[in-house]
Design brief:
Elements lengths: L26 H8 L10 E3 L8 E4 L4 E10 L6 H18 L3 E11 L6 H18 L2 E9 L4 E11 L14 E4 L5 H9 L5 H12 L4 H6 L4 E6 L4 H13 L1 E6 L9 H5 L6 H10 L3 E3 L5 H7 L9 E5 L4 H10 L10 E5 L5 E4 L1
Parallel strand pairs: 4-5, 9-13, 10-13
Antiparallel strand pairs: 1-2, 2-3, 3-6, 4-6, 7-11, 7-12, 8-11, 9-12
Helix pairs in contact: 2-3, 4-5, 7-9
């Protein structure tokens, strides 16, 4: 029998422990899980188990490569249609982060059928179809289970020219860093779960979470873009550490140049911080140093804040900055066209946070 609770009164975030990419397993725990004594043949695998990249990439041997990824999580917004949109945009982002073009998606749905009506699950699927249509792909099938908590996501395939493939481990010393979205989403989503998020900030949150990172395909075609990733559950600091360590470098970021999402500092002042922020910080804090003029108290909560469908973190050779800025302007991202930092030679700390 389908639940009789009025679906208009149901807030999906109240039916899950985590929210969005904040559901991710802590970095140090994930490292333990993924460590394996087995080796795998990777003769056609351009990106695979040997790195912490956004997707697997398989060489089709015709000048193109197949990108394959999956991502799913528990609700980060209350509305079912928006939850589908957010989860779909987040999963598709991994294709864009590799410089690719998404071509096909299938759905992954877990639904507590004794607690939540099937009509809400249908809305989740419709939201996903809406975003897939915006990305120019079809939601072609999928799989569902009866689960204790609701979760949803996609498995997505994409295509990329092998010469345009972007990894998160190929940055070069002197590359400038750009980020295509503000950070602080985890703080807003936690405020929503606590029922204190104001309406104007709820709209800001939804827009951020459902905006496709489609500029990634265009950035993939720019030779001077050395490396790229999307900022998700490990926060800006975590994903920058992955880029820097994978590239054998360190990074400097200018804290005052970061775009922080509207409302985040207001809720931070109320001590509203996701649990995942602390897990992230405990996992990599020893790799970060701060200059004395940085507002460290605030930065502790902003840099590890888990993002869902966060922006693309882009490493750019100085000679290609103007080309990249032109792409930003074309995609309506002019406000993000100032670099937030740069890659430098490897030193004791992986990230140096400057004022």
């Amino acid at each position: 029998m389908e639940p009789t609770e009025n679906k208009e009164d149901i807030k999906l975030t109240q039916y899950s422990r985590g929210a969005g990419c904040g559901c991710k397993i802590a970095p140090q725990v994930l490292e333990e899980i993924l460590h394996s004594q087995f080796s795998f043949p990777e003769n056609k695998l351009l990106v695979g188990n040997s790195s912490n990249d956004d997707a697997a990439v398989y060489d089709l041997e015709n000048g193109n490569a197949l990108i394959s990824t999956t991502d799913f999580f528990m609700p980060i917004v209350d509305d079912a249609f928006d939850f589908g949109r957010v989860a779909a945009a987040n999963a598709i982002s991994d294709i864009y982060a590799m410089g690719g073009k998404p071509i096909l998606a299938i759905a992954l749905l877990g639904w507590p059928v004794e607690k939540l009506p099937a009509s809400l699950a249908k809305k989740v699927m419709e939201g996903a179809r809406n975003i897939c249509a915006e990305a120019g792909i079809v939601l072609a099938g999928g799989h569902s289970i009866d689960s204790a908590e609701p979760f949803f996501g996609l498995a997505v395939n994409g295509i990329v020219s092998t010469k345009d493939l972007k990894k998160n481990s190929s940055a070069k010393e002197g590359d400038l860093l750009f980020l295509t979205k503000p950070i602080g989403v985890g703080i807003l989503s936690t405020a929503q779960k606590k029922n204190v998020l104001r309406d104007e900030h709820s709209k800001v949150l939804t827009v951020q979470l459902t905006t496709l990172n489609s500029i990634g395909e265009a950035l993939g075609k720019i030779q001077g873009v050395s490396a790229m990733t999307d900022v998700t559950g490990f926060g800006l600091a975590g994903h920058l550490i992955e880029m820097a360590e994978g590239s054998g470098l360190s990074a400097e970021i200018n804290y005052s140049d970061l775009n922080i999402i509207e409302g985040a500092k207001e809720y931070l002042a109320q001590r509203i911080v996701p649990d995942a922020t602390y897990r992230n910080w405990n996992g990599y804090s020893k790799k970060i140093a701060f200059e004395k003029d940085v507002n460290v108290t605030e930065a502790f909560s902003i840099l590890p804040d888990p993002q869902t469908n966060g922006g693309l973190l882009v490493a750019v050779d100085p000679s290609s900055v103007n080309e990249v800025i032109d792409a930003f302007i074309q995609f309506g991202l002019k406000k993000f066209s100032n670099p937030i930092g740069k890659f430098v030679a490897r030193n004791e700390k992986i990230i140096q946070v400057r004022k």
